[in-house]
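Team,

Forwarding the record for the chain on the shared tracking sheet. I've put the sequence and predicted structure together so nobody has to dig through attachments.
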Amino acid sequence: MPSSSPHSRPIVLAHLTDMHLFADSGGTLLGVDTEASFRGVLQHLLDSGDAPDLVLATGDLSQDGRPESYTRFLGMVAPLGAPVHVLPGNHDVRAPFQAVLAAHAAPVIDQGPWRIILLDSTLPDDEGGRLAPDQLDLLRTAGQVEDGRHVLVAMHHNPVPMHSAWLDPMRIGNADALFAVLDALPRVRALLWGHVHQAGDSLHVFDRPPGRAPLRMLSTPSTCFQFTPLSERFSIDPVAPGYRWITLHPDGRLDTRVVRVAALAPAPDHPSHDSTGY
């Protein structure tokens, strides 16, 4: 029986984000041992028995930006046995990130019937995000596929408001420019991001061309602590950390689900915090 074409089967992606690892083991952030939590999430993924075709990590891999934290990250994800692709977040430090992770940070990934484009939305010494002209050019060029592939675009910062007063000022500041580019890229099916430490699933409806399918827009829980949705002030949501499975079908459809690791949920008396000093 002939083997199937690589373009004829779905691609399964595991999305991990916002690990906030430290150079030294045992580092805590808002009372959470971020490495222990990440290990628990990875073990849950391994125990699921589902094998991803690739792993995508969308920023804030490190909290302190030291090379050892990035080396630790690579060692921790190695047992997944799948290619790992990364992009930076606002807590990552560019020089050590690139020094350790350059081989995993290619901005364009062609996988079966899909192309994944990784955009860098970070700004030096700034919690917020912006897509520089070179990133918009990357999207404009790489998003013009001519071989029938569909496109998923990933970044760290959210391009749309999460309707959270303290968090929304830290989204992509020039999202209008992003969506202007996307207007001309009908093969882009979805946007994916981290940063917001909460799950989201919504649609962006294009004004043109008429009849164009809506764009799926997804955010994924952090592997450590979560932000309370729709909050006026910074606070921690007492829900479990998790990750997202995404199945990319050859016809451009996308199936996805968020998995919460209940065993890692914060204790009922875990304090809520009223500052953004995470």
